[in-house]
Amino acid sequence: MPFQNRRERWAGDWLTVALLLGGVLLLYYAVPILSLFLAQSPAAVLSELAAPTVVSAATTSILSASITTVIAVCFGVPLAYWLARTTVSWRPLVDAAVVLPLVLPPVVGGVVLLTVVGPNTALGSIASSLGYDLTGSLIGIVLAQTFVASPFVIVTARAAFAGVDQDLEHASRSLGKSRLTTVRRVTLPMAWPGIVAGVTLTFARAMGEFGATIMLAYHPRTMPVEIWVTFLEAGLGNAYPVAVVLVCLSLLALVALNVLGSDPWSE
Amino acid sequence: MLEFDSITKSHGSFRLGPLDLQVDDEILAILGPSGCGKTTLLAIAAGILQQDSGTVSLYGDALDTRPPEDRGTVMVFQDGALFPHMTVRENIRYAAVPDTDVEGLAATFEVAALLEQRASSLSGGERQRVAVARALAADPSALLLDEPLTNLDAPIRHRLREDLRARLAPLDIPVLYVTHDQSAATAIGDRLAVLNDGVIQQVGTPATVFERPATPFVARFTGHDNVFDGTIHGGTDQPHVRWGPYRLETDCTGFEPSTAVWFSIRPEYVRIVPEPEREATSNVLTGSITNRLFEGDTYRLRIAVDDLDERLELTVLRPAYDRHGLDECDRISVSVPPSAIYLDRVE
Predict the structure, then answer these.
(1) Which candidate from B70, B83, B144 shows the least CB-CB separation from A186?
(2) pTM assigned to the model
(3) I need a labelling partner for B131 at 20 to 30 A (CA). Which of A11, A195, B147, B278 fits?
(4) pLDDT for B18-47, tens place per residue?
């Protein structure tokens, strides 16, 4: 039918326009990263890889981001499930609280955290007297990263849980399975891709966290802080190779988690 | 026996009950329009919803405080609610009691060939077959089916209706079958309960409910398209119904004169009367045709009855329709056999 064809061509034209518009943004993402890579000789990057400061920063970043991600998952995924299923009237308040760290500038997040865990606060001094410094330590980095990065897994996992038809859970329980078994065998497997996407975002965000981290823990240096310090002390050119290393680490994490999160029951 | 005792449940402006219902080891079809509360009733029995007051018990044990998994009531959902990430076999085995013959069960429900397929790849009819097989594998003490055939094409629906009746009838457990489709309800149910606006209108065998509807709502919902109000005139032994200017003879007896009644006339019993026979025929109504609907084998006509603000529906077989050469706006005389009038007191 000619009308049908015209309509299809119309839809096709619009898709092309949409891609062209989006393409401008895609280029804007890709070109700087490409140019960063092209600005470096591989030898320079490799030599940076061996530099003790870079190795130490990379270790700190990976370690802290991993701890942050584990904390975010342990505390955030149950909250995401609650948010997806609860019918209490004050749920929007919890929603707002979850999104708050996302809209807060990270530096402000750091300032806010310092008022609670800073060295002169009650919590900070008690922890310090027990031998655990909440600032200027790995703990401080994790605190900063958790504040900024954990909402990603909550928001994403919540959407994934909400996408699981509640009738499936009702059916499971009606068939005699407990709430826990139902979550384990029905809800979690179905929400898995979404949860892993959230984990990826959280990990990536934690790896890149700078604003709150620099307020809470200038030392030990994470990769972003290392880049910043190198840039200030030795100029932009010397910061490039460290940036390349961080980009590579982030991409690697992205790939690894995507493989994990690939739809486990896709044919 | 599954028993509902004074069950109430409100949400928003809707109120279910107070509702009493006993389901023996039988298939009880709950028939009612959408929004009448039938799914709410199932959800209460399954423990998915908590009633506001009243008690649900199964063979004498109160279920009210038990979570869904400890009730022994298994619910089958409208779209099957199969776990899409599992195969058909995994779905059936999900809650199967030990030593369940999965292959045998699958063969009974004609899904044996699908056992290794993902549940997400099944058609609507296959999904329902697997859903019922999965429910039976769990060895339920009561089975709750929520419109399992609603979203299926007519031929599959008819086939599955027969199959369900054949598989569910020998179970010897209470089976609640919720539907808004009167033909499914009569085909599957041993008994029917008609529900409207959260209130049970009538419980009885399909034949009783269809032939002797307890309320005008039940009459309309079970296909009595012509339901009107009238008054009894004449003696108790041979009464007739006064309907506006018309006097309709009826076979129904036992009503005092001046009793306000509602009465129904099945459209398939209304007969077209040729002009020469009019004088010699009883219960003749005249009017003009306002609507004509071609239904394949039959025409469905709607008549504006003379001197009344009422519409009478009748179905006419095609040969008869063609013989009378009728069209919209034509004048028409019809007769209603006294035996085709069912009437009851206005409550």
Answers:
(1) B83
(2) 0.83
(3) A195
(4) 999 999 999 999 999 988 999 999 999 999
